[in-house]
């Protein structure tokens, strides 16, 4: 196998400078000609990246939605693999009677002014570039998670989305489950009291090793795959290397293209927790783990954990292995008055999910009225179809902020997992200020909390909190009045 490496060319610099390139200028010019997407007639959608996720999941779900009455057509496909392109054409023609156009270069698809929206399901390292091109071309966007490969790219996409009037949904489908908004309402109203921590996981196990279940076949050859384009050589994403089926078919195992469980799985879990708590940018992030079992040439970890501390005084814990999954960690949001325990179905595809409120003992909360309670929710369709339908509804209504996973939430999840990956690989702790500026860690994080304790200030709360001091007050014992330095030989209780 050819050992993949990360390009020395800055991805951020490429994205910034390529906005003035001929290709990007052409897309910008084309945007002016793009019709008002979905305002009249059928919504015409192109798929960029028609592999396992792009074809077997998203394309087929969209076709089912079409059968249920959605006024959409899938009219074009762009993919570097000819087998994927032909499979897409054959399926769409058979199912809908439409014969899609085909492209290797996504920019050709985006240049079609009659295409209203695109689904992006390429390998992770291409997400930002194609998304920026699509927004510049005036297209609505559904981009698979993770939204971007780096923190910097996330900021670029958020800025481009805000500058457009386009609808963009990011493919963490579980965010379309109602439980996260339900939990947010309970949290903001003070049910948990002061929120202090969330924990989540996405453990798996298998005889092949993570991502080795993705098939590599004899049909994958230099003649059927534009390998240079897959790598992103001309874009500065990766140096040119000899064709390798493993890199192409099992790219999630290599840092240049994805982050293994961090980007494939942790993003799902983290996004739900961020949505439920209202948290976004972390303040301090550290990641750990290693390759402890799967010694099969992979670069990404098979065991990993993240500790993310937030300015609001909340800690996030994510921990999993890809080689052991029995007795998984519970999905929990903890507060002083109790916790929310999310059923595993909240991350599933059925659309049926629930969570429980488990109160702390009344001797601590001083509130005997807090009782265990279970909250249920269900979507009419499966959760992927619901997520796609939410995107289509936002396009039809012309309300970009009505999607269930917008670019700002998606960028926050990317920031958390990307900094954890960098922490593991670089041996660093990272700090993030409230404006989103990333720096190497130092003592200032611990110093700041110690200063707040010394000043005896009130606790900080999650965004949206409107419950005053509920579950946020400490009651020191009487003898605590005896604490403190003696001044001029006098005990503190007399001063």
UniProtKB/TrEMBL annotation:
Protein's UniProt keywords contain Oxidoreductase: yes
Broad EC category: oxidoreductase
GO molecular function ontology, one term from the record: inositol 2-dehydrogenase (NAD+) activity
UniProt KW Oxidoreductase keyword: yes
The enzyme's E.C. designation: 1.1.1.18
InterPro entries cross-referenced by the UniProt entry: Gfo/Idh/MocA-like_OxRdtase_N, Gfo/Idh/MocA_oxidrdct_glycsds, NAD(P)-bd_dom_sf, TAT_signal
Keywords: Oxidoreductase
Matches recorded under PROSITE patterns: TAT (PS51318)
Residues annotated as domain Gfo/Idh/MocA-like oxidoreductase N-terminal: 43-171
Alphabetized PANTHER family for the sequence: BCDNA.GH03377, OXIDOREDUCTASE FAMILY PROTEIN
Protein name in UniProt: Inositol 2-dehydrogenase
Species lineage: Bacteria, Pseudomonadati, Planctomycetota, Planctomycetia, Planctomycetales
